[in-house]
Design brief:
11 strands, Nucleoside Triphosphate Pyrophosphohydrolase, about 300 residues, 7 helices, two-stranded parallel sheet, alpha+beta, 7-stranded mixed sheet
């Protein structure tokens, strides 16, 4: 194929938009960019319905006087106001009382509206307020991707948990605690959610930035640090998995087009990107049958 520009890789739904096995994607750096799709068309059950925002009206620079998103902040966020509750994980509702409002994030300078509220870097989401997110602006998360090749079946598998809040399979990630190093969050979340202890100091960085999470609002969003460890030999075989407090179950999930497409938020995209990067580092590691699937995403 001559015009590789037509191959856009991922569609907004997280499934490959075109399949071009001839594309020489290995020659290019894999750059991860997350679109805002779920953050506009999905929401948790306790949220009001989002104001419908068409693609062209997303950018804040676009004048859109009709825009009237509902305002929502979940009771659990208000109950955990750190200025009122010892150990609370949420900012106060009054933005003027927030002492550590982020001026910069992985997405660049955080813009503010006329009320001093941070503005979502992907533009309008159809929901004002913080929803279920505690911090005004970026809410930092960490996502540990663990993969292995199942030697018996020749599948590539990821360590996945089933989320309690919506039953979807996901990377066993979570929010970074105040003052916590991200490497520590990656290990802690993996231990808490999947019962597994691993060191992330040598893990490969896949991505740092916006996550297409259904909790996103105009004034609060998730930005994650995604790191990848691919396990081999005994280490890959011997991990004992145990579902923790936030997980219904934990498993080695075989990666197929279907299972990747159904992962929570942007996780399918993160996993594919991690494996593409792994292939660039170690071309002989992944089984041929998986390479066909992987190549179809780039
Ligand atoms: C996703 O939500 C992130 O990618 C991360 O996996 C997760 C963090 O939220 P909780 O699992 O703590 O709800 O957007």
């Amino acid at each position: 194929m001559e015009n590789n520009d037509q191959n856009t890789g991922w569609s907004l739904l997280g499934v490959p938009s075109t399949v071009d096995p001839e594309k020489s994607w290995l020659q290019n750096e894999i750059e991860v960019y997350v679109e805002s799709y779920r953050a506009r068309f999905e929401w948790p059950p306790d949220y009001p319905r989002r104001f419908n925002v068409a693609d062209e009206n997303m950018p804040w620079e676009v004048d859109y006087p009709e825009y009237e998103p509902p305002y929502y902040v979940a009771p659990v966020v208000l109950e955990n106001d750190c200025t009122k509750k010892e150990g609370g994980w949420a900012d106060p509702e009054d933005i003027a009382e927030v002492k550590d409002l982020a001026g910069e994030s992985f997405e660049g300078t955080v813009l503010l509206d006329e009320q001093g509220r941070p503005l979502n870097p992907r533009g309008r989401s159809g929901m004002a307020g913080r929803g279920l997110l505690g911090k005004w602006g970026p809410n930092y998360a960490a996502d540990p991707i663990i993969t292995r090749v199942n030697q018996r079946f020749g599948d590539v598998e990821m360590l996945a948990i089933q989320r309690k809040d919506n039953g979807q399979w996901a990377i066993p990630g979570g929010m970074v605690d105040k003052g916590e190093a991200v490497t520590a969050t990656l290990s802690r979340e993996l231990k808490e959610e999947a019962g597994v202890e691993l060191d992330f100091s040598d893990a490969h960085l896949v991505y740092q930035g916006f996550v297409d999470d259904r909790r996103t609002t105009d004034h609060a969003w998730i930005e994650s640090t995604v790191k990848h460890l691919h396990l081999e030999g005994e280490q890959a075989e011997k991990l004992e998995l145990e579902a923790g407090s936030d997980a219904l179950s934990v498993t080695w999930l075989p990666l197929t087009d279907r299972s990747l497409g159904k992962l929570y938020a942007s996780h399918g995209y993160f996993v594919v990107s991690a494996l593409g990067m792994l292939y660039r580092r170690q071309p002989d590691l992944l089984p041929a049958k998986f390479m066909q699937l992987l190549a179809s995403y780039f």
